[in-house]
Amino acid sequence: MGMKTGIGADSEATGGTAGAPEPDPAIPARYSRQVLFEGIGREGQERLMASRVVLVGCGALGTVQASLLARAGVGTLRIIDRDFVEESNLQRQILFDEEDVRTLLPKAVAAERKLRTVNSLVRVEGLVEDLNAATITRLLEGFDLIVDATDNFDARFLLNDFAVRSGVPWIYGACVGSYGLTFPVLPGETACLRCVFESAPPPGVSPSCDTAGVIGPVVGAIASLQAAEALKILAGRRERVSRRMTVIDLWDNRHDAIDLPPRDPACPCCGRGEYPYLDGALGADTTTLCGRNSVQIRRRDGGRLDLDEAARRLAAVGSVERNRFLVRADIDAYRLTVFADGRAIVGGTSDPAVAKSIYARYIGA
Ligand SMILES: [Zn+2]
């Protein structure tokens, strides 16, 4: 189109119609700027409006992705999240407000309500659920695209197993501090998560937003990159999808695109067709401890925990006691006790989903 040098000539304020395509009754006028954009056009917009997308997680990444995809006019948007809105979320989770905190709204419910006011043409469905081996097929089946907005590796390895087995593309995204990375997984075409990272890191090794903090702009940047790849896939422009891993650090002013490894024929998941996370053979498992208002979390992969590291990190968010066997931290209303074998007992709840959430946030998975 050769319009790059003319940026700004037809500003938002003028609303100029010069060069606009003829009205198409099937495409609402609200999408005119996407229809004008040659990468999408009418055909791409029609595909978008017929598409079904599922977001796993509705925290920082998820709220930005959900907002962009609902505004872009995807057909169906399912949002899965197991958490409630808290005050410390508001710094970066752009769909939520103080009223959501006061009324203890689950994130999936708050997001659904807000998005319906943003674009009533989209079928938005917020589900307050925990994604695990038992629920994943029911929650993710039948979608064209899965977007990762989770906060832990267990969930990502689980959804990678599901996506590769069902041949559905998904888009990895992760942030902590001022750092973030993202890459798309196109099953059968590009490396899957297990081609890139052999297995989930041992618990407690990788920092999380709840222990190391995070700034809003990096979340917005990574979620926006994910949403852009989503638009390409959903608009039928798969050839434009990035085949590299984008890594950014907004505090160190670094922006890199790193070549992904090729698909590994020996990859247990996309090469050999083994899906241990999906089978429940790997990942975290929970047991509610009767009468103790506590849930025990056990890891199936035998990953051990570095107690010194865990104690150091937990000291930033609560009061910590420790001995050579365990670390105990009181965080808000919860008492988290972690053992060197990676096992944990979360006191203050009998809900396994809440316990897993606490574990993922402060220990990592
Ligand atoms: Zn693979």
Question: TL;DR of this structure?
Answer:
This protein is α/β, with parallel strands linked by helices. The protein has helices at about 30-35, 40-50, 60-70, 100, 105-120, 135-140, 155-165, 195, 210, 215-235, 305-315, 350-360; strands at about 50-55, 75-80, 125-130, 145-150, 170-175, 180-185, 245-250, 255-260, 285-290, 295-300, 320, 325-330, 335-340, 345. The strands form 2 sheets. Strands 3-2-1-4-5-6-7-8 form an 8-stranded mixed β-sheet, with helices on both faces.
Task: Describe the 3D structure.
- The protein is an alpha/beta fold.
- Helix content is 30%, strand content 22%.
- It has twelve helices and 14 strands.
- The chain has helices at residues 32-36, 41-49, 60-72, 98-102, 107-118, 136-140, 153-166, 193-196, 209-212, 216-234, 307-314, 352-362; strands spanning 52-56, 76-81, 123-128, 145-148, 170-176, 179-185, 244-249, 254-259, 284-289, 294-299, 319-322, 326-331, 334-339, 344-347.
- The strands form two sheets. Strands 3-2-1-4-5-6-7-8 form an eight-stranded mixed β-sheet, sandwiched between helices. The chain has a six-stranded antiparallel β-sheet with strand order 9-10-14-13-12-11, with helices on one face.
- Strand 4 (145-148), helix 7 and strand 5 (170-176) form a beta-alpha-beta unit.
- Helix 3 (60-72) packs parallel to helix 10 (216-234).
- The longest helix is centred in the middle third of the chain and has 19 residues, at 216-234.
- The radius of gyration is 21 Å and the shape is globular.
- The mean pLDDT is 89.
- Zinc ion (ZN) binds next to helix 8.
